[in-house]
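dumping the sequnces here before i forget
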Amino acid sequence: MSNILECKALTKRYGGKEALSAIDLSLEPGRIVGLLGPNGSGKTTLIKLACGLLTPTAGGIYINGEAPSKATNAIVSYLPERIALPLWMTTQQAMDFYGDFYADFRRDAAEDMVSRLGLELRQTIKTMSKGTREKLQLILTMSRAARLYLLDEPIGGVDPATRDYILKTILTNYSEESTVLISTHLISDVEHVLDEAVFLREGSIMLHESVDTIREEKGKSVDELFREVFAC
Amino acid sequence: MDWTFREDLPIYTQLYEHLTLAIVSGVYGPGEKLPAVRELAVDAGVNPNTVQRALSELERSGLVHSQRTTGRFVTEDAQRIEQERQRLAEEQVRQFLAAMSKLGYNRIQTVMLMEKMRGEGQ
Amino acid sequence: MLGKLMKHEFRATGRIGLPLCGIMMALSVVAGMVIRLWSDNLEYGWREQAGSIIIFLYGLSVFAVGIGIFIVLMQHYKRNLLGDEGYLMRTLPVNIHELLLSKLFVALLWYIASILLTMLSGLVVVFISGEVKLSEFGGLMDVIRDGLASTDAYTWLCAFLAYIGGMSLLTLLFYADYAMTQSFSKHKVLYSVIFVVVFIVLLRLVFWFNSALVASGFGAPYFGSNESGVYVSHGAEVGLIELYLSCVLVYFITWAFLKYKPNLE
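..and the predicted 3d for all of it:
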């Protein structure tokens, strides 16, 4: 299997509304891919389908050749949009939890980042600020040596310093054989770290192209191209 | 190093220019080891594959050579570095002359203006 | 992974469950001492007033352990699988069976532990209060032994299975109910009540033959007693099978909703 993530005519409907319309997408290992689109374009739906939080209405989604399951969850590291860590847990307990359930959890890497962030091991998540909770959740997600990282809006609504911290944490920790899928509507903030861009609009893929190719052939940034594609 | 990128060019060509400038200006001296790909990527806030591509271009141009296990080094060939410095300098002058020509200055007028300004500066 | 999940369940529910049990045990000691002081003194003064309050609090703590632990378990289930924590729990490398069973097993262990602890706290009150002297303890044990002897092992087994089955069904009904009503954005409580009623009616309908069996005299009451002790009737087996089939049915309804209609808020 060469593709770490593959969607074949993947469709998801909620009631009568189609969130994803028969999309085909293949992602190779070793890439950082931007899943770009305005709010409500189906980014979160695609990510939830990939980690088994939703089931497809039609078509299929495959992680390393398999439909999402307990086996694929072991190689996928998912960062949800919201804080999913139980608030009563301490930093220490949250790391224990990840260590218990994920064989690929790099405890030393997590401890290193936690201490550099100045977090106390005995501090409960409840007492942390929203920004700190998000950083801790990102640290835990990126401390796994996963094959596929699914990051849902990791930089939504953060200040530039935090954005840099988040992007650096991602770049420092992902392994070169793994693929990182970053969903966002803030293209200019992430475009320098991307290999590929996937434009999603109303549940369909408008474009899937290498970022260098976009700049070479169109002579404009991904952000500019995005504004053109979605301007109407 | 200050990493700023233009929007209309691929990141790897801009990285290539950045690194070339760093080499000819002596930030990385002849024979000196360059930082690892990941380190450069994190420092510049760009994709490691992009850094890889820029470094490959530098290797092709002969400014950098890689040793299988230990990493990448700036060439010890001082002549090659000087040659690159010349190329960049000529490129700067060409751009400057082009800009002056737009202002209606021919080469002789430009040189005279520069002489005059040098006199004023002293 | 089931073991790790259960460990985590204990950690998550023990935060409130253990202090509740601790308070009950502490109050049982204090209540026992209050009663001991009390019995020497017939007049009703401040000491007796304070004593009544403590005994009342002890009674309240027994109630809190019984009901409180159930509420803690249900709240934890809801938040852990259907709320924000669901994003973490349901993307773990475990399947939904493991998630559900770890919760059910831990709940059952809590029920049993809370009953044993409540009984222990009762004994603590009785002994500390001095109502029963330690020298009389042997006599008490004899009474218990006689009671045990007059009821055969099979009856005890059936009673135990009935308890486990009944508590499992109650717990699973709540699990299924929460999983189903999660799909609705409005009137959750109303739907919740409707679903519980519908569940129970359906379960009765599915096992309608049970009443027919009882009516035909085959079943009779599940447990009865005669001069030789407590016995268990043939109806009990039918009842137990019915109970456990209901558990399985409700379990799979919950499982299907979590698997195919996962609605995280």
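The beta strands of chain C are 223-226, 229-232.
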